[in-house]
């Protein structure tokens, strides 16, 4: 290991939530509503670098009103899950990929880069300490939220000279408890998520703040989710909400599974990358393409696009059932989850729970 290891101080809680209360939460966790007994914090300051790494009881932070994050938004995050394995152990899925993306996000926002080893160890420590919060095998998991923000106090506009990195964890239920349900999407031609040269490739809080009004517009149009188009021509499909998109061209064994190319304005999803590999492992042709809204509408009309789905860590794979824009409205296939959508979803979930062979070394056992 090239990087010096950061030593963590372990300060476990003297009052973890009683078993019965935790079990009641795990029976119906929802998403992002309940948090485990602990959190990890690591400080960074200019001159000192990373220091004061701790595992400690989950607790509110005290914050100065002039904390720079509140004013200028240097704030980035990650999302990954710990899965109960069929053998009873617990594993993280590709935490190294999240750690590397976190470094890239930090670079884009002029923040310090946390060493990959420290990111992974912070996640491992929290999962090990709070392993009783990891639900059973199935579609449930423990969602980890690593994040970092400026902690310097002051109103001068500049990269802060102090930061706080943290990891918190929240049990997550099955996204579609009653079976997978297709979503309706609104093609946003007025608002854009990311422009060339902007922060679209970084997982930063500001991207989400800027997206909420478009999501509200989608809801007003009676749609579940917003689909983002490129900022220059408002033609090319980029992402859906906080998930990447996939299109199935053709069907059966000859199907080709394609996803919008990473142009610098899309978030490079780890689920997106994993599915490109899994689809190839299953023997399908894959591609990274540029696809316009006209291509999408025509493809669904003539049947050359048979299925569309979105993917991301939180919701795994979500089928797209109907599409609406200011000018048009159409259905994807018969509006029901497609065969390949289901197959890819089942394969990914099986991989994450250790019930099929981990050919690419993606599972990181936590014990
Ligand atoms: C996090 C995120 C994704 C999905 O990334 P995963 O690594 O697959 O979870 C896609 N789009 C946006 C905008 C995101 O923030």
Automatic annotation (TrEMBL):
Record's catalysed reaction(s): L-valine + 2-oxoglutarate = 3-methyl-2-oxobutanoate + L-glutamate; L-isoleucine + 2-oxoglutarate = (S)-3-methyl-2-oxopentanoate + L-glutamate; L-leucine + 2-oxoglutarate = 4-methyl-2-oxopentanoate + L-glutamate
Q: Which GO terms describe its biological process?
A: amino acid biosynthetic process; branched-chain amino acid biosynthetic process
Q: Give any GO molecular function from the UniProt entry.
A: branched-chain-amino-acid transaminase activity
SUPFAM superfamilies named among the record's database cross-references: D-aminoacid aminotransferase-like PLP-dependent enzymes
Q: In which pathway does it act?
A: Amino-acid biosynthesis; L-leucine biosynthesis; L-leucine from 3-methyl-2-oxobutanoate: step 4/4; Amino-acid biosynthesis; L-isoleucine biosynthesis; L-isoleucine from 2-oxobutanoate: step 4/4; Amino-acid biosynthesis; L-valine biosynthesis; L-valine from pyruvate: step 4/4
Q: Which UniProt keywords apply?
A: Amino-acid biosynthesis, Aminotransferase, Branched-chain amino acid biosynthesis, Pyridoxal phosphate, Transferase
Coiled-coil boundaries = none
EC main class here is: transferase
Superkingdom is Bacteria
Query: This chain belongs to which protein, by name?
Result: Branched-chain-amino-acid aminotransferase
